[in-house]
Specification:
Helix content of chain B: 10-25%
Structural class of chain B: alpha+beta
Number of helices of chain B: 10
Number of strands of chain B: 24
Number of strands of chain A: 19
Radius of gyration of chain A: 24 Å
Largest sheet of chain A: 6 strands, antiparallel
Helix content of chain A: 10-25%
Oligomer: heterodimer
Strand order of the largest sheet of chain A: 3-2-1-4-5-6
Radius of gyration of chain B: 24 Å
Largest interface: A-B, 71 and 81 residues
Number of domains of chain B: 3
Largest sheet of chain B: 8 strands, mixed
Shape of chain A: globular
Strand content of chain B: 35-45%
Chain lengths: 447, 462
């Protein structure tokens, strides 16, 4: 059944059983992916899929249900479940179906040129990446996840208050893991590139970065476990920020799950730190003209010169805090409820390159990747202790790679302890980005 | 779910360009997801996932297509899209279907879809109240109930026709405790391959109080010291260390491409004799259990390490080609959106002879990890990390003060060699495991074990 036909029937039957305000959210996705192993296609993926989320107000309360099957039987399924789910919701803080903002930006996040790149072109490109990589050094023994992927997503939202919106986005990413061996020592690196501009991609450049990253880790040594000044490279800093970004959500502050509660207008970070959320970045994975409630998005400063300026809000959290929504209603997909989430959230870069930051360090550690963030970080308290890879820095120079480490500290303390910020803003396959950050001190333990 | 003739057409279309194997996976899944926070329902979500995955092999090339369009035209188009990745002329056609009969290993009493939500919410409220009432410092309780009924049909060009119904239920309890400006959390999340009977029969006094107790205990915990220590890891979810340090490295996903530290080592000693490591999808009603895997192979018990000797890997159909070894019934996937690959089910260290008390008493200066958080491994290097949720210091054979904020790091194969005591109290814990074929339910398990030395990264410094 076509979506338009489905919507008409669904809204009619919803009205008949007593829903007053109703909304349908529809997502459609096209995916192509290809993975190469030793010159041949190892995995190949091609897909078209999507689904529909229904939500509506019945007896003054909001109920949700979704389906991926658009058939006649799904209409009573959605309505029965949404009605039953509404019944158990509390009477206060009810979500609303939004009639619309006064105006919307009309930015384009869909590249027609990218959409026209053919499958053989993409396959040839990823084959080139692997070939270039394996040819770079005899110590590079294999790749893992040498893949290219394109995704195009259409999101539409309509309701019976007259709102009808649609956004379209596409992007491509290339990912490669290089495995290097030298004697008994094995190291890996993970290199990626996200873009809408296929022509700008350079297979040799990607291969070179993957090779250098992996090879530079060979010959790792021990250093004394103690507190060191730590330079978090941009991608590592971004992954740490992403882990704790929910603390800027009003949903978390209102639920008592964020230590930033009651800190509006207060200094929460070093005066160098400015954090913004920008929904209009051309290449941003979180870019959007409207949020999941249909509210027009706009750029927002969360932290300015270390002072907390705003939380992220949707309609419900804004009402509760007696403020206005910031346009940060977010659904994980049509399967989820409306929550709060960032669009493209990042720490504003300053002037210094990574090399310049290293040159200012008397002694310390340069961290190039973090892992175990999903488990080793306590979002609520801000405490973290996570595995890390990186290098020993002495007298302004990178000396040697260090054995597997953990770095431990507290996110809130870390924000205060930012001493220098790099110019190298990056978004590592994520809508959350950061430049490199020099941190006064973190506890470093070496295996 | 779909007719035999339609499926035959799809499998034929998928083979039209010279593929030597084609497969269809049809999924129709009903889910409920309810969150209760501070005794109020925060979200109540219900839905139906429906889609079809089509796979074609030609030699060591694998092509995967999926779609939510279930019309004949839509499915044949998806199959042809997949076939286009292969160049050649049709060489084989699908064999006649043979329906395999098998009884369920995991009987279900109450289908979640047939239980009214008020009954589910009543259990959640009780869990929340129990947890909240544990101690005055508990400031916030979140209870999540998730249930699902996944109907699958797997058919392939070798004549396989297998259908299954997987029913899973889980209750997750998170407590937040506050004291001054300190805030800590505790978690317990039991789950099973069962219907609502599992939720209703849960011992809430045990689980809800345990989540609360962990949060309250951590309020008074000291920062964990850093350094190398003997580490005692308790049973149940403690098994996550071997899930990371060892289990992922035994998956064909890494082994077939020679990218695992355990590749080409069958028959070698990889652990002390006291270590036997098993993956068993047949344990009745366990969270990670299955009747058949997502390639239609019957679930089985695979002994991976027997008395310290590496005996087997976890192998799916595609990687079995690269490895020249049989599938072990380990092909799993999150949904029709993922091609299946080798994954774990319920994986555990077999029980040994030591009593837990003996293990503690035999440890002079170490760390006792009572509950674990999650972890991660790089299968190529074997380097792993995982978080401890609740830990204690052990001094002179006695459990001392509570510790917090610790991560264990190390190398899987090396850590495995350092297991020096294995307890007799085997237990399993439910978790979600993320990898190439998505996020799937798995159990990790073990009795209490001791590792003579692990690097502990704490917040206190050395």
């Amino acid at each position: 059944m076509r979506i338009q036909e489905f919507q008409v029937k669904l809204f009619e039957e919803a009205a008949a059983i007593g829903f007053s305000d109703v909304e349908i959210y529809f997502e459609r996705k096209e995916v192509f992916g290809c993975q190469i192993f030793k010159g041949v296609i190892d995995q190949y993926e091609i897909a078209e899929d999507g689904g529909v989320s229904f939500r509506g107000i019945i007896d003054g309360k909001m109920g949700y249900a979704y389906t991926e099957k658009l058939d006649d039987a799904s209409i009573p399924f959605l309505l029965k479940n949404a009605k039953e789910n509404a019944e158990f919701m509390p009477d206060e803080d009810v979500e609303e179906i939004f009639a619309g903002s006064s105006s919307y930006e009309d930015r384009h996040f869909f590249s027609t040129a990218l959409n026209e790149v053919t499958i053989p072109e993409k396959i040839q490109f990823i084959k080139d990446v692997e070939r270039e990589l394996l040819a770079m050094d005899p110590r590079i023994v294999a790749t893992d996840y040498c893949l290219i992927r394109t995704t195009s997503v259409t999101k539409s939202l309509s309701n019976n208050k007259g709102l009808s919106l649609s956004d379209q986005m596409n992007y491509l990413y290339v990912m490669v893991e290089a495995i290097v061996k030298d004697g008994e020592e094995t190291k890996t690196s993970f290199e990626f590139k996200v873009t809408k501009d296929f022509q700008s991609l350079d297979a040799k450049e990607i291969a070179k970065r993957a090779a250098e990253e992996a090879l530079s880790q060979l010959g790792s040594r021990n250093i004394t476990s103690k507190d060191y000044p730590v330079l978090l490279r941009n991608d590592a800093a971004a992954s740490l920020l992403a882990t704790f970004s929910d603390n800027f959500s009003a949903e978390n502050t209102q639920a008592g799950l964020s230590s930033l509660k009651n800190k509006l207008g207060k200094q929460i970070a070093s005066s160098m730190v400015t954090i913004v959320d920008d929904p209009f970045l051309e290449e941003g994975l979180g870019s959007r003209n409207f949020d999941s409630e249909g509210v027009a998005t706009e750029k927002l400063t969360l932290v300015e010169s270390g002072v907390l300026q705003s939380f992220l809000h949707n309609l419900k959290t804004a009402k509760k805090d007696q403020t206005v929504t910031t346009g940060h209603a977010q659904k994980d997909s049509y399967k989820g409820a409306v929550k709060v989430g960032p669009s493209n959230l990042y720490i504003l870069p300053l002037e210094s390159s990574l090399e310049e930051l290293v040159s200012t360090m008397a002694e310390g550690v340069l961290i190039t990747s973090l892992s175990g963030l999903h488990s080793g970080a306590n979002q609520v308290s801000g405490d973290f202790s996570v595995a890390a890879n990186g290098f020993y820095v002495k007298d302004g120079k990178v000396h040697f790679p260090v054995n597997l480490m953990t770095i431990a500290g507290n996110f809130y303390q870390l924000l205060t302890d930012v001493e220098k910020i790099g110019s190298d803003l990056t978004f590592p396959l994520s809508p959350i980005g950061s430049p490199s950050l020099l941190i006064k001190s973190l506890s470093v333990t070496v295996e | 779910m779909l007719s035999q003739s339609l499926i035959e057409d799809v499998l034929t279309a998928a083979l039209s360009t010279g593929g030597d194997f084609s497969e269809i996976f049809v999924e129709d899944r009903f889910t409920n997801n309810i969150t209760l926070r501070s005794s109020k329902i925060e979200t109540a979500l219900s839905g139906r996932d429906f889609g079809v995955g089509i796979r074609v092999f030609k030699g060591l090339q694998s092509v995967y297509a999926y779609t939510t369009d279930f019309s004949k035209d839509g499915l044949v188009k998806a199959a042809k899209n997949a076939a286009q990745a292969i160049k050649g002329n049709s060489v084989i056609s699908p064999a006649p279907f043979v329906q395999e009969a098998y009884g369920t290993l995991h009987p279900i009493q109450m289908m979640p879809q047939e239980v009214v939500k008020s009954r589910k919410i009543a259990v959640m409220k009780k869990a929340s109240d129990t947890c909240k009432n544990y101690h005055s410092s508990i400031s916030q309780v979140t209870v999540r109930l998730m249930d699902e009924e996944q109907n699958v049909l797997i058919a392939n060009s070798e004549g396989k026709w297998a259908e299954d119904k997987r029913v899973r239920s889980r209750l997750a309890i998170q407590a937040v405790a506050v004291s001054g400006n300190k805030m800590e959390t505790g978690f317990y999340g039991p789950g099973a391959h069962s219907g609502f009977e599992f939720i209703e029969n849960l011992n809430l006094d045990l689980y809800a109080n345990e989540a609360a107790r962990i949060a309250v205990t951590l309020l008074d915990a000291s920062p964990c010291p850093s350094g190398k220590f003997p580490v005692i890891i308790d049973n149940e979810f403690g098994g996550v260390i071997f899930h990371e340090a060892c289990g992922h490295g035994l998956e064909a996903t890494a082994v077939a491409k020679n990218n695992s530290v355990f590749a080409n080592r069958i028959g070698e000693r990889v652990a002390p004799e006291i270590v036997t490591y098993i993956d068993d999808g047949t344990i009745p009603n366990e969270w990670g259990s299955i009747n058949i895997d997502d390639e239609g192979e019957k679930a089985r018990k695979n002994v991976l390490i027997e008395n310290g000797i590496l005996t087997d890997y976890l192998i799916d159909k595609f990687n079995s080609r690269r490895m020249g070894m049989e599938s072990t019934g380990s092909g799993r996937r999150q949904s029709f959106r993922f091609a299946p690959t080798s994954r774990m089910t319920n994986t555990y260290i077999a029980p040994g002879k030591s009593r837990p008390g003996e293990i503690i008493a035999a440890t002079e200066n170490g760390i006792y990890a009572k509950y674990m958080g999650g972890g991660q491994v790089n299968p190529a290097t074997g380097d792993y990390n995982f978080a401890i949720m609740e830990a204690y210091e052990v001094k002179n054979g006695k459990i001392g003060k509570p510790l917090k904020g610790a991560t264990l790091i190390g190398n899987g194969p090396k850590t495995l060699q350092l297991v020096d005591m294995v307890g007799n109290n085997l237990g399993h814990g439910a978790g979600m495991c993320g990898s190439l074929s998505g996020s799937i339910p798995v159990n990790v398990g073990q009795p209490m074990i001791r590792v003579s030395e692990i690097t502990v990264g704490g917040t206190k410094g050395e």
